[in-house]
Amino acid sequence: MRPHRFQTIARKTSAAALIFMATAAFSEPKHGIAMYGEPALPEDFVSLPYANPDAPKGGRFVTGNNGGFDSLNPYVRQGSVPWQIRFFASESLMGRSQAEPFALYGLLAETIETGPDREWVEFTLRPEAKFWDGTPVTVEDVIWSYETLGTVGHPRYLGFWQKVEKIEQTGERSVRLTFNVEDRELALIAGLRPILKKAQWEGKDINDATLQEVPMTTSPYMITDFEANRYVTLTRNPDYWGKDLAFRKGTHNFDEIQIEFFGDGAVLFEAFKAGEISYMREFNAEKWATGYDFPRVDSGDVLKAEIPHQKPSGITGLVMNSRNAPLDDIRVRDALVHAFNFEFINDTMTGGRQPRITSYFSNSILGMDHGPAEGRVADYLAPYADVLPEGAMAGYNLPVSDGTARNRSNIRAATALLAEAGYVVKNGVMTGPDGAPLTLDVVLRQGDNETATVVDLYKEALDRLGITLNIATVDGAQYTERTNSFDFDLAYYRRAISLSPGNEQNLYWGSDAADQDGSRNWMGVKSPAIDGLINEMLNAEDQSDFIAATKALDRTLTAGRHVIPFWNFAIGRIAHVKEITYPETLPIYGDGVDWMPHSWWYEETN
Prior knowledge:
By secondary structure, the chain is α+β, with helices and mostly antiparallel strands. Helices cover 26% and strands 20% of the residues. It has a 5-stranded mixed β-sheet. A 4-stranded mixed β-sheet has the order 3-12-11-10. The longest helix is centred in the last third of the chain and has 17 residues, at 449-465.
């Protein structure tokens, strides 16, 4: 396993400190923008720090997905879309550097300018920017994209648009957005909206697009072939307009990316072992240690790489839908957290090799401190004292078992919590105040065998409590439909979090998102404390306030017992064919869709 060098945010400044540099006012068009301070790369930078500008072009990269798809339009809510399409076949006005917490550089836009308080942002388009068909990107395309996606697009785009007072053309190639709220992050978010071709949708409703109507963009890769539920082929555009941009140097190196679809994870893994796909991301440390001993690894045809990162843990686990009784009762949710025997399950699944997620921002400077809230964190929490979940102010830790299968002490604690909520065991069945048995439905995606095993182990614990857990394993389309409409009690949940959390926090757990079909607030939480702390975080202007507000938010989310956390993915684990490789300098975010296959390349080996 080869050594790596992290790309530091700045050579003489720690990553943590630079996240929170004092804000500089923008008074003229610039090549980039950062959430705090100035972007690290100068106007004449050669390439992104973690890209190899001399990387060869060519070769084929094959990735595998579980399940299937019935749409290639990721910009609307309808349909099940291969998750990669939004990243591989889309482009925005600005591009994000993975070597900095939150910094953007010109992509479709050659410059960005903001008001002194970022109350507006203006972009000037590059004259050479073109769609796949060779037609130029116009301000009209930009305005149409913002308005359309902001009003009838996927819910991920709706919240931003509600904060736009107006969008207007200010020059032949310039467009300005003026905001109706104080929110310094909006100028950056504006730069990351996808830009689509208006003329493609003249006289049509983008929400009624068929599978054959692939949205046209400006990206380096074009969707050139597909068969529903079997494969999607993306081909590098030889006439890509931005191939000479510094931001694109050394990236998008493969001639072709193929997305293949398999029935489940076991079949996908066998396909990798047989050489049918190019890599596997392995999220299970036990399998990584013991399951990658097949002949292609032994011969050196498959290599194993471990990729460190500096980002927060995010939250991974079983989310509890508090829209549904009795999960609207924190005592019931707390009981379900106690019943989840993490130590035993972790030992069974990963050999105990992976630590548990202890909070939403754990593993980073933004994560909550355990014990009572103090100082500025306590100050942020104090206005919400009457509505904070138990433990947010005093301190909260996840329950720990003795590691045995019975988990006796935590089962007793769960029983006591359920009794407080009015539940008693009658004839071996946990029964509510209305006399009805406590029954919960969990929905899982077909092919997610690891989560299915975890849930099976959890079901055994709930059986001992007298709780019935009904497991529904459905295909990708049904899973999307059920989770979009919140038709579940529990579901597998994953929310990644960056070193620069911002407006997306409102989408994940803000009150306004709780009632939006298709939103990311699967837990259905509505909390004035969470809403207020997100707002404090968004408007913080110095290091100490940003950290304190985020730590306070982390405490409130964690103590709310909304998710039963699994283990932390502290490093990325990638097994890949020897013909594909990557630079030694790594982004601070480690492995991710903006790094692989973005910065990888194909190279023939002996």
